[in-house]
Amino acid sequence: MLAVISGPSGVGKDAVLGLLRSKAFPAAFITTMTTRAKRAGETDGVDYIFISKDKFQTLIERRELLEWANVYGNYYGVPKEPVRQALRAGRNAIVKVDVQGAASIKKIAPEAVFIFLLPSCFEELSARLEKRLTESPETLKRRLATAPEEIEQIGEFDYFVINREGELDRSVAEIEAIITAEKCRVKPRRIEI
Amino acid sequence: MLAVISGPSGVGKDAVLGLLRSKAFPAAFITTMTTRAKRAGETDGVDYIFISKDKFQTLIERRELLEWANVYGNYYGVPKEPVRQALRAGRNAIVKVDVQGAASIKKIAPEAVFIFLLPSCFEELSARLEKRLTESPETLKRRLATAPEEIEQIGEFDYFVINREGELDRSVAEIEAIITAEKCRVKPRRIEI
User: Fold this and answer.
1) With an 8 Å Cβ cutoff, are A178 and B157 in contact?
2) Which of A27, A79, B133, B151 keeps 20 to 30 A from A34, CA to CA?
3) Would you list which residues of chain A are within 8 Å, Cβ to Cβ, of chain B?
4) ipTM of the complex as predicted
5) Strand A33-34's sheet: what is its strand order?
6) What's the pLDDT tens digit per position in B140-190?
7) Is residue A97 part of a domain?
8) CB contact under 8 A, A178 and B184
């Protein structure tokens, strides 16, 4: 099964996936590829897979990306091959993408399970974004401005999980329940990518 | 949400529901009504709600039963009113019925969540039925003969849970996951009965 976890910036996608990972949840966590330079403290293969622009272009041409975007000159994308490998081995694959990325994935893998992470309120989102020291005030403002439009896309998703401040355990338990329930479906979802 | 738990005789529906109940799972467990005489050890309102044939007939006429059947002269049926009460109070309602009963409920409440309990093998089913001392060899034979046809109905259900011998906890955890996941659906199921 392919689970796509998405939601606006600052909703806590990384925290949720981090906790799932640390609980040894049985799934392949697919790492995004990027052409941007590695920052201090980042690990290749964990935070991102860092590759050259040439290699990224080749992946685009070969249609080997589930979704990709060019953000201010840097490419970001989710490779198909590790998803295929996980599914072939009978494992769950979990992908983390922004809301636009989820829309792209839905076009080529409509049978994936789409989970939308919601903040409990807009203030929570802005407080979380402000805590991030890596971002400029302009980026912060832009991210906050995009959130309402992104939340409008929720109708395209299968499930929503409200990621309340201080209740990360609960969010993760709900995502685990969704994945367990999906495996109990009489009509399984078939992913062909 | 209305969850309908079904499956062939001997698959362990009562054991699963008993464990859910004892864990104080937040749901209204709907008790079946019957016109048959109370047996030793049975409690009115727990095992069944025991009512007269006249009252049962009135419920049929008023269409106040989610499903009902006449088994060798005795009526059995699931009342709508406690389901409505639970749903109005924002609670889950859980109904336990045989496979034919589930098919009837699907006609009037297609938006219910239908869960099929499966045995891990046919031998397990027959061993469990044989352990029941309340049944005659004829009843046992008939129940076993019906099981394959009943299992063929699984396509009409949303989920299946394999109730393996000695793994009741796992079956119950899967049912809890299904109900939790269903509550996270972006498009909720609306029950109108």
Assistant:
1) no
2) A27
3) 115-116, 154-155, 157-161, 173-174, 176-178, 180-182, 184-187
4) 0.85
5) A49-50, A33-34, A74-79, A65-71
6) 888 888 888 999 999 999 999 999 989 999 999 999 999 999 999 999 898
7) yes
8) yes
Within a domain: A188 = no
Is the pLDDT at B135 greater than 80? The verdict is: no
**Element (H or E) spanning A106, and its range?**
helix A99-108
Buried-exposed string A142-173: b where 16+ CB fall within 10 A, e elsewhere: ebbeebeebbebbeebbbbbbbeeeeeeebbb
In a domain, A191, yes or no: no
CATH of the domain at B161: 3.40.50.300
Report the residue of chain B nearest A160, measured CA to CA.
Answer: B184
A–B interface: beta-carbon pairs under 8 A: 60
Residue A50: both structure tokens together = 């860092």
> Which residues does chain A have within 8 Å of residue B160's beta carbon, measured at their own beta carbons?
184, 186
pTM, full prediction: 0.89
Of residues B50 and A140, which shows the higher confidence score?
A: B50
The span from the CA of B129 to the CA of A20, in Å, is 41
pLDDT at A133: 67
Subunit contact B186:A158, Cβ cutoff 8 A: yes
Identify all chain A residues contacting B158, using CB atoms and an 8 Å cutoff: 185-186
Can you read off the two tokens belonging to residue A165?
């401040």
Query: How many structural domains comprise chain B?
Result: 1
Residue B130, in any domain of the structure: yes
Task: Write out the residue range of the structural domain in which residue B126 sits.
Answer: 2-30+81-183
For A143-192, what is each residue's pLDDT tens digit?
Answer: 888 899 999 999 999 999 999 989 999 999 999 999 999 999 999 898 99
Check if the beta carbon of residue A6 is closer than 8 Å to that of residue A157: yes
- Please indicate whether, in this complex, the C-beta atoms of A182 and B186 are within 8 angstroms of each other: no
At residue A124, the pLDDT reads 87
